[in-house]
Specification:
The chain is of the alpha+beta class. The protein has 5 helices and 6 strands; from the N terminus they run ααβββααβββα.
Length: about 140
């Protein structure tokens, strides 16, 4: 991976954690360098970025050190997403709330315009982000 790509994904990871960057800003920067998707893994405290050319880069992050609830609650994940969209909490608050909802991580699919949240038993919840999908040319159907 080129040094500039590595620095951008690390900047996006830290920007999310510190609140210096919004989700749309992160998506734009990642899209600009060819990131197709990324996986936030709460258990391993890392985010893996996957590029269109098949390469990837792992960034260590400090997700809250807490237990994930046993039961996956898609309704609570959706509520946390809505609160984020209204800027009602920080990224760390969001992570804590989704952990409390049984979420162990998520995939952001830039090319598909959606985020897939998942639980420890394979449960999932999908949230679309149509504004960015229009920007990147992906469809929202």
């Amino acid at each position: 991976m080129k040094v500039d790509l590595k620095s951008v994904v690390e900047e996006c990871s830290q920007g999310s954690l510190t609140g210096a960057m919004t989700f749309p800003q992160v998506l734009q920067k990642l899209n600009d360098i060819g990131v197709e998707r990324y996986h936030a893994d709460y258990s391993r405290h890392e985010i893996t970025y996957y590029l269109e050319d098949g390469t990837s880069h792992v960034v260590d992050v400090t997700h809250p050190d807490k237990k994930v609830a046993l039961e996956f609650r898609a309704d609570l994940v959706a509520l946390s997403v809505q609160q984020s969209q209204r800027n009602e909490h920080t990224y760390n608050d969001f992570v804590c709330k989704t952990m409390d909802a049984g979420c162990v991580g998520y995939f952001v699919q830039l090319s598909g315009g959606q985020v897939i949240y998942f639980g420890r038993n394979g449960e999932s919840h999908v949230e679309r982000f149509p504004a960015f999908a229009r920007l990147s040319g992906a469809t929202t159907t």
